[in-house]
Structures are given as C-alpha cells and as structure tokens.
Amino acid sequence: MSLNRKKFIALATALVAGGAMAQGYPAKPITLVVPAAAGGTTDLAGRMLAQALTPVVGQQVVVDNKAGGNGAIAASLVKRAPADGYTLLMQYSGYHVISPHLMKQQQWELADFQPIANVLSAPQIIVVRDDVPARTLAELVAYAKANPGKINRGSPGAAILSNLAPVAFEQSVGISTNHIPFNGDAQAIQAMLSGSIDIYGTSITSSLPHIKSGKFRVLGVMGAQRLPQAPDGPTFKEQGYNFEAPLRYYLSTRSGAPKETVDHLNKAINEVLKDPAFIERAHAVGMEPRGTTPQEMDKLLNEEIGRWNPMVKSLNLPKSDKS
Asked: What is the pTM of this model?
C-alpha cells in the first residue's frame, strides 16, 4: 500500500471517528465548573445555564463549584481535564483579565481553553445607602472632593472587575475613596446595611432586594440603558460620563475539544438563550442572555483584555505563589 493511500485511509478513519463522536455527544453527564462559591452571581449564572441546558442536550449538566485563586483553581481543573467537551468552565469576565497579574507563575493561558459562547452579561452599577448625601454621580464627585478620605467603598474583592471599574471611574474624575474589599457580595452587602461602607460597585443581581426595599439607591448604571429592575437608576452616559463596564459570563472547555462537540454545545446554548422562559428568568435577576459564536466570544475576550490590562498593571496587585 502506498504512503499516500495510507494517509488517505488514516484521514478518513479520523473523520469517521470524529463524526461518530459528535453524533454520540453527550453520552454521559457534563460537568460545569464554576469558579465561585455557591450563592454568588457567577454561581447563579452557571446554575441557570446548567438547569436549562440539561433537557436540551439530553444529559445532566452538573455544577461543580471550585472557588479560590481568583478563578485559577477552576481554570486549572478544566485545563487538566480530557479534551472531550465533558468538562466546561463558566468564566467570569474579570478573571481572565486579572488572574494573570496575580500569580508569580501563571497557572493557565487563554490558549488553554476553547471558547464556546458568551452566555450572559450584567451591567455593573454603583449603589449608595439611602442616607448618603448624593443622588447623582456629579453630587458624589462633589461630595468626595469636599470630604476627602470620608467615603468608604466596598467591593466583592480587590482583584475583581467590580473593583476595577469604580477605580477607573474615580481616576477619570479625580476622586478617591477608601476601598474595603470583602470576600464576595454577601459580606459587602451586609457591610452596606450596617453602615460600614457607603457605596458599592456590584451587579444588580446581588443588590436588587435592597434596591427594591429602598435601603440602597442606584447612583449609576455602567451600561447602555437603564435596567428594567431599577428604572429610576440613570446610566453613567445619561449623567454625562461615557463609561460602560459590563460583567460577562463565558462558557469554554479545554483546548483541543473536537470541533463537532464545540459546535454542538454552541448550538444548544444558543437555543437555551432564545427560550422565553430562560430570558424571563435571566431578566428577573438583572442578567441579559447573549449568545455568540465561538469566534465572537474569542473576540470579546481579547477586547476585554486590551481594555483592562493597563488598569490592572497600574494597581500593582500583590502576587502569590499559590493558585
């Protein structure tokens, strides 16, 4: 048998095997690794998707929470998984921007993962307690300048986009606040309620109950339009500040997964994101279903890195040996 004929047979065999794999996928449960503890916004996004995706793909999609290391623990787990599309990563948009700057030795790179789709997004907001004497961003800026060192601002963590976006805004208008990082939204919300912090950069999802009760007031939405859940909260742009900073939730798997499998998942996810019941549930918690091709997701990832990397570098975040 000639060498060319052998190559042809090998290629044909691989194509048949790949097609059989795609037709049989998924043949077992799929694990969705979430880089956050149960109860947070990223966890909610992952669980919403897993629940809706299960009947579409015909196999159970199981959420596996792997919090820690600013997303590095979860990312490292998926990086080491077989490249078969059965281990997925729900990636919060800030982690791939910030995590590389936190480790003395980088634990993972974007090239380690195959994009599947941008699943959900949620605009960040700035909320203040109801007793803070600022009802607009301009009033907040004036108050901060007149009272240096008196405003305490909380965030779910120092090395997180919910901190970077307010820092970027503060730098753009020439003010500063006392930043107090917490271990997640729940602790920061309690600090707001107790009066330990005055303002908070977050998503509508975690703060919505307190906005509805009147304890928190939306000072500005870092998105293109007002949120239906809090229609009285104006956007930054409405107030004269050209500033947007959405939180995005991406789905990926280990690099090297079969293209047919990735395409199958992308099609299933986009089907879920167009389902009226899923859309209604997402809107109820302040999220917006997106849906992209893998190529579009890859473009979004690189755009975010290009935007936020200079800010992350300027903060000189302390590096750690541990993931």
From this structure: 0.80
